[in-house]
Amino acid sequence: MTASFKPVSVAIGDLTAHPANVRSNSPETYDPENIAHLKASIAVLGLLQPLLVQKLDGKYAVLAGGRRHAALKELVADKAVKGFTAKTKVDCRLVRDDCDVTTALSLAENITQAPMNAIDEFEAFARMMEVDGQTPETIARTFGTTVAAVKGRLRYGLIHPDIRAAARAKTITLDTMKAFAEHPSQEVQREVFEALTKEDSYLQAYTVRQALKSRGVQVSDDIGTFVREEYEARGGAIAADLLEEHSVLEDAALVETILLEKLAAAAEEARIKLGFAWADSVVGYDYATMADYGRVYPSPIEPDEASQKRIDEITAELEKLQLEMEDEGLEDDANNALYERVDALEDEARDLQEAYSAEDLARSGVIASWQGGKITLHIGLVRPEDTVKEEGARGSSTNTTGEEAPDAGEISYPASLAEDLKTERAMALGAAMALHPEATLDLTLFKLVSDVLASGMSVTQAIKIDARKEYRSHAKMDEIDETSLEQVAAAHDALDLSWLDDNRSPADQFAAFRALEAGEKAKLVAYATASTTQSCFARDRQRDSLMHDFEIEIMPDIRAHWTPNAALFNRFKKAWLLKILGEDLGLAQEAVTLASSSKKEIVAFCDKLFAEPFATLTDAQRAAVAAWCPPMMQTAGVACDEAEHASQSPEPDSEIAQAA
User: Fold this and answer.
1) pTM of the prediction?
2) Fewer Cβ neighbours under 10 Å: the N or C end of the chain?
3) Nearest Cα to Cα of residue 215 among 180, 266, 242
């Protein structure tokens, strides 16, 4: 029998609890602190969803909507709230007396009851401030939450109405809408929204944030924090936000001017201290542009008695730190702190034992740039017009061309790094699968059919089709290259999920699924298979011929889904990085020039190089950069036995194990 629920208006005082309501045995559900949020919502927006009631002993018993009923009673009792009395009528739906599904109806509504639409919630907070004159503090007390949480919600409520409307219409996602809150100016939000939507491309939160960065600098950004005091002193405009850390320094030109001035002052201070001839400053240190610069280095000197004493102290401390760094149980922060301390001590010891020649000081200088949230000094640079051309010029320590990169020995990947590369390769393979749905559909169906019908072992262990996402562990998941993640997310956004409606029964969902076009089904299967594929390395034909051939077909170039970045280079020894630059990439001169730089500088160079290959590279160098990845990551790279042997056999007290 189909139930029909007649609309009826009922006074709040005529409502009572229904014994069949599934929450009637959980009175704590109706405690004031548990319904504060709902009470505040109804006070601002009214009752958005009618109560389900049934006549019982002359009253209207609330079959579904007990928490809303409790919130209404709280509003009646709260004398500070206007418009709610026992006689105030609210919308209800009346269930017939002979309906025999009351408990089922109550259970269904209480389980599937959706929270208030997120956009409605944002706007409700804003209205409570703008119309009712409340403050974040009073709203926080009403909702039983923190002031910071309220301000965070209010920021979204103040997003430009056109953008909120787009999110409500689902032409953009809620996450994309939230990204516009990065800038507090609604006018700026609207301009960026219109500019991006004109491009007729899929609008992502990342794209929005990048576009907003060109419209000012947040006060909480490293540059914003660094220049703010001087910026305000010069009368720079600030777009204020409800949360102070999200306010924006709107005059980007003034921000850059102040930053350059501070960089220039730091460069000049270093020039005077070290005795160089000139000083300069740039916001971003462009390694391609600086490739034409030479560099001079200090030569060894005999330390005096005081310097030698300090060198001995540093040596003793370094030995102690090396022992501490061998502890594999160290947290990342503690490990990084040890590396920073070692670098600082090594720099100090080097300064005590080296000095620049007078000739080098007379033609070299210092450039200050902004890197990693702080001022970075590039010492001993020689401008192109001042570079000594004669090979072996007397008194000069400038590197000349034609030298080979330092011999760093064979690179051997420690087990921890090998396992993480294994995860990254699996993620790249998943992205390739999602982008090749027809081939992946064939693979999935072949795996299912052959596992059931064929005798013997499974055709491949690389695919785990068991309706569960494969867990992928990684030591630095938040730092890895996100290309494959973005590709999989884009593939997910393109899926037809109209059949996946929680309000439908599984049978109805299946019927809708079967009605999908074959291409849409292939995309769904490909995405599911990509999510269940386990971590793996390049497989040789003898070990897994199926995946060996399939990977070559859909992922002939892993670099289409993955790019080496600083997270990877940070885990390589300095000598490895120089060897890769000099031998694998053909950048021998750069490797020689960087040999006396800190590992941090070399990592930054490699990160920049792979993110956007320099215009000065030769065709061969550019091709090498575009193709390079660790051998075990290559689709048709080294045999699995070789990669696994290298990854499973590091000496625990070797330099390689320490570098991991």
Assistant:
1) 0.41
2) N
3) 180
